[in-house]
Amino acid sequence: MKKGNDTSSTALLGQFREAFYLLLSRAFSREPDQEMLKSAEQVSRGLLDAWELMELPSDPDVQAGKTLLETFFSELPQRNADELIEQLARQYAALFLGVGPKTVSLCESVYRSKFGLLYQSTLFDVQQSYREIGMAKSDHYREPDDHIAVELSYMARLCNMTREAASAGRAGRAQALQHLRLQQAFLKGHLLQWVPRFSQDLIVTAPPGFYRAFAHLLKGYIGIDGRLIDSMIQELNDTPRSKRSKKKVSSDRPATHH
Amino acid sequence: MARYGMIVDLTICTGCMTCVLACKQENLTKPGIQWNKILELENTALDEITYVRQSCMHCDNPPCMGVCPTKAISKRADGIVLTDQKTCIGCKACIDACPYSAPRINPKEDYFSGNAMPYEKNVAPYRVQMAGKATRCTLCAHRIDKGMVPACVEGCPSRALIFGDLDDPKSPIRKKLWQSKQLLADKGTHPKVSYIVPKNAFQPSEKRVLEDK
Amino acid sequence: MARLTRRTFMKMAGLSAAALTMSDRLLMSRAAAQAGAADKEEVGYQICDACNGVPCCGIKFYKTGDIITRMEPWPGFPTATLCSKAYATMQRIYHPQRLKYPMKRTNPKGSPDPGFVRISWDEAYDITVGHMKRIGEKYGPHSVFFYVGDPKEPRAAVQRLAATYGSVNYGDESSVACRKGALTAEVLAFGYGTTGSPPNKDTKSLLVWGTNPPYSGPANDWQNLLDAKERGVKFIVVDPRNTPTATILADIHLQPRLNTTAALAAGMMHVIFKEGLHDEAFCSKWINGIDELKEYVKAFTPEKTEAITWVPAKKIVDAARLYAGNAPGGLKTSPQGTTHDLNAGNNHRAILMIPAICGYMDVPGGVEEPTNPLEGFGGGWANGPPAFCFRKKMDQMRPHRLDNKDFPAFAELNLDVQVNRIVEYIKEGKVKAFLGWGFNTMIWPQTHEYQKAIESLEFSMAVDFFFRPWTHNYVDLVLPGAVNFERIAPFAVHGRRLFGRTPVKPLGECREDWQIACEIGVKLGHPDIFFNGSAEGACNEILKLWNTSYDDLRKNQEKGVTVPPKRPNTYRKYEVGMTRPDGKPGFNTPSGKIEAVSLILKKHGLTALPEYKEGLKISKEYPLMLLSGGRVPYITHSKWRDDAPWLLELQPQPLLDIHPDDAAKRGIKKGDDLILKSEWGQVRVKAKPSVLVRPGIVGLMHGWAKANVNELVPRQFDPVTGYPPYKEVPVQVIKA
Predict the structure, then answer these.
(1) Buried residues in B163-174 as b, exposed as e (16+ CB within 10 A)
(2) What's the fold here for domain C195-357?
(3) Cα-flanking dihedrals φ and ψ of residue A67, to 5°?
(4) In whole angstroms, what is the distance from residue C47 CA to residue C493 CA?
(5) Does residue C414 surpass a pLDDT of 70?
(6) Which CATH architecture has domain C624-735?
(7) Is domain C103-112+128-174+381-562 classified as CATH 3.40.50.740?
(8) Which residue of B lies nearest to A122 if distances are taken between CA atoms?
(9) Third-level CATH fold of B4-211
(10) Among C15, C28, C98, whose Cβ lies nearest the Cβ of A43?
(11) How confident is the model at residue B60 (pLDDT cuts 50, 70, 90)?
(12) DSSP tag of C251
């Protein structure tokens, strides 16, 4: 991927990642409404264009999601707006709210084999992660702490905090690195432990359209975000290459440019 | 030092399965794993059904301990036989050795995909069940250490499970010991779980337990 | 770097802002969030709703924050300990498929996909109350049917709602198939309801008829029976099945052919009268129609009775002698098991006559009537406290009951409406809406007819824990109910002891049944009558009866609050005017006596004596008799399948109990796929050859969605109780 020698490309990547996480979070936090669909079209298109522009690694799931989304949004003008919102609400309910033939759970606890690394429930684990950055799940959101939308919004929050810290000079840089490491830890310790299986389940269960598209996007994005974080860490470290131990990247997809 | 054992009174066991569930809730065993299992023994001649509760017998001479290649199986001073899951390699030698068909191998699956049960902040070690490892009744050692009886004993609505210290003359288990018999005694295992069995059901019970793999 | 222009940055900033705007604020700063109670382990107390019985058993649980981690029996609780199903309530509470939000259908009824979507509680209530008001104005309030299925807990609150709204048509699973059939028979016979009393040190014999307590009742019940056995009480167990009750307790076990209850009872009474083992003084003074009864049972010689019931003559004689000859004898009947055939009412009445003629009524150790039932409680949550339930108002509206013509005796004696002909009432336009708490169309025979009927209504609403397509595909609204751990209402009542519950915060947006009923009442315009929607407020209204409150219950959490009895224990209360509400001596019946000849049945043109009536007949085509619903200890009705994998793995598929002889005749082995069929329907099941049933009888648990046994049961109803013949269906079994 394209790398810059100054922090501006890091800032760009940071904003990109934050927006991506927010988009994905909203896709799953609840049913779409008119406003959300409009924004989702704009944001997803913009981000997927930027993907190309920034020459991020190509990913078959991201590609599949992009295609499905393009089809979905292209058909939008012909659809009756209210009917479409209702259809999406039906799909959301059938997929996630227990009224369909196969319910796909949106919570990490259901997917993780118990006692992953820490012999502690993931629910309390992620609560702890949120607490460490001074946050907690909002009371008004009646889903558990380890709901995908909450976990994704945590990552978005960290991206935001990273960006603010990175723009605050040398001291901020250390903070930003810390935030990036937290993101890395959460990605590895949580998201990567269950999202691939969850999104695969959703790909298989959801009819082609909005939810299958986002399932692909989620799967693809989570798969490569580790490398994006890595590159940001590298940027911020600003250490000569030879002295830095290369982080092993657990992906079999080659980077397009090094 | 105490020597803990149990008497299972098959003359009043109704096959209600409460012990199976009390154990499962207490220990969060994996799908298909029943540390105490109820075998239904049909007697067509007598028109009777005997419910045989089968579990680890916590033998004084446990054949499983002898064959375990990694020494994962040990016997506490109070006689409780335990398998250390971390040391276990899932080789199934204990399964072959046990005449009571007690040990099983934990499956990979959980109930509800990844979640056997509700969330737990600090999962109690006795609730940790590792896939691929050998598992069996622990006599709720964690409860005994706190002065409580095993979950199945507490839960039995028929009071068919009697628990106590076999060496304590005042223990409730001693009062009924004379009525009880050990299953498959000829195997030399000296099981500390013994049975009060309806007259015609003794040999069939032994047979069922032996065959249940 | 050429590509990363200033424009790129600006565009990205724009995207970022747009993404932020569209996102939901799911995290908030921790200062605003509460501090972690989430670290301490705390104790809580609850009651179980797993078996649909009331009163319920006690659970003590441990939680961290609002998350429950483990449970155990509530120490010292009256029911002694728990059953397998209680433990499964722990697995249910966090089941990934629990309904968490109110749902509304968006596709028209009849569509293969009802298209449920999430709505808010406000919208759900607006829809419900909107229909209630509209339908009430257009068709009259009695056209809205209020129903409570399983658990029984919501009944009192729903009755209050029905009464306030102005509909007399409240029914429940007790009026369909559970308690009320037997209760009707008991009230016809004695003037009060009873399934007998626990045997005590004075009891010498016990007649256990059609019930298997270790599989169906609380632990203390069974332990009491075991203790009685140890004391030397003589047990006569009547059950077509070879249950543990029979195996462990019975001195004599009678296994009658299905639906021959009244004949067997008559056979026993024949012996008792003939050998002078009855209490002549009691009979002549206190049994109305005793001469007719004596005359009637004359024909039921042991030989004739054997021919009808298949019970060996000698056993009938021995059983009669054992019971009548070991005075006093007690009684233990099922709340409903002996009322699931086409002669339900009189079959059950016949049983009740036996202790009556022996003079065992309300003597120490006999069939004791409680001297001090909790005042104002109305007998239990299965009924509901009369004042709270606005019973007087409901009584005034009786002429509008749907079941008056079809089942006049039932309608006269019960607060709840007999629901089983609701298919017809709906077709006739008498019912336009149905509000059901925990209801399931599978309870009814020929389920598909009820599904169609409910589907045709202008409005229907269901409250449930899980989505059940066989019911919810036919309704308009599904509301998410709170499970037992999450409910505060009702409090537990055991005799004169009251216990409170410490609920955890419900999952998602689930609400408890009492709150839903009260909130609908508030939306209807009656905030005061419905405690502003507060379930605890409703409980406090009832607790006032005994000068206590929920706070008191909390203060005395583990031991509960005991309401001291008012009168000293008195026996033969009927002699001293303590049985009738008007204070006169006698029983609360039209004649003032126990009625062998029932004046109420006579009045309604029904058979006045508890006569045997031949029921559905076996034939060459259907040579076996199906007993459906015989208890399996880890299943209740349609619950405890996918919603509790711990229990489902004990019996993952519908198993047909079939006697090894009957199986062998058909070349059937354990595990074979079978077709079980009757004249009215068929299901696919798996074979379980077992001596649990006798030759000629097969047994299947109801409630399997993929093998709904009730499709085999005809829509024919006992004229006294209105109950269907769940335990009397001629069937054939073949390999699939």
Answers:
(1) bbbbeeeebebb
(2) Dimethylsulfoxide Reductase; domain 2 (3.40.228)
(3) -60, -45
(4) 10
(5) yes
(6) Beta Barrel (2.40)
(7) yes
(8) B119
(9) Alpha-Beta Plaits (3.30.70)
(10) C15
(11) very high
(12) S
Per the listing, tokens 């609050």 go with C561
Is the minimum CB–CB distance between A93 and chain C shorter than 8 Å? yes
| CA of residue C130 relative to chain centroid, distance | 31
Please give the sequence-ordered ranges of beta strands (E in DSSP) within C524-639, or none if there are none. 561-562, 594-595, 624-628
SS3 for C79? coil
- C-alpha–C-alpha distance, residues C254 and C243, integer Å: 11
pTM assigned to the model? 0.95
At a CB cut-off of 8 Å and minimum separation 6, what does B146 contact? none
Of the candidates A2, A98, A136, the beta carbon closest to that of C98 is on: A98
Q: What is the pLDDT of residue C54?
A: 81
Q: Check C242 against B117: CB less than 8 A apart.
A: no
Distance from CA of C14 to the nearest CA of A (A): 9
Q: What is the pLDDT of residue A114?
A: 59
pLDDT of the residue at C424: 98
Same CATH topology for C103-112+128-174+381-562 and C624-735: the answer is no
Domain boundaries, chain C: 1-38, 103-112+128-174+381-562, 195-357, 624-735
**Amino acid (one-letter) located at C663:** A
> What number of helices (H) and strands (E) belong to chain C?
26, 26
Interface of A with B in 75-114 (CB under 8 A): 105, 109-114
Q: Which domains does chain A carry?
A: 7-135+143-237 (1.10.3480.10)
- List the single residue in B with minimal CA-CA distance to C633: B16
Residue A149 CB partners (closer than 8 Å, separation 6+): A25, A26, A28, A29, A30, A106, A143, C24, C26
User: CB within 8 A of C551, min separation 6: which ones?
Assistant: none
Tell me the residue type at B108.
K
Alpha carbon C658 to its chain centroid, in Å, reads 26
- What is chain A's pLDDT, residue by residue, as a tens digit (258 residues)? 444 444 567 888 999 999 999 999 999 999 999 999 999 999 999 999 999 888 899 999 999 999 999 999 999 999 999 999 999 999 999 999 999 999 999 999 888 765 544 455 788 889 999 999 999 999 999 999 999 999 999 999 999 999 999 888 778 888 999 999 999 999 999 999 999 999 999 999 999 999 999 999 999 999 999 999 999 998 888 744 434 445 444 444 444 443
- How large is the average pLDDT for residues C600-619? 97
Determine if the peptide bond prior to C660 is cis (ω within 30°): no
Which residue type does C616 have?
L
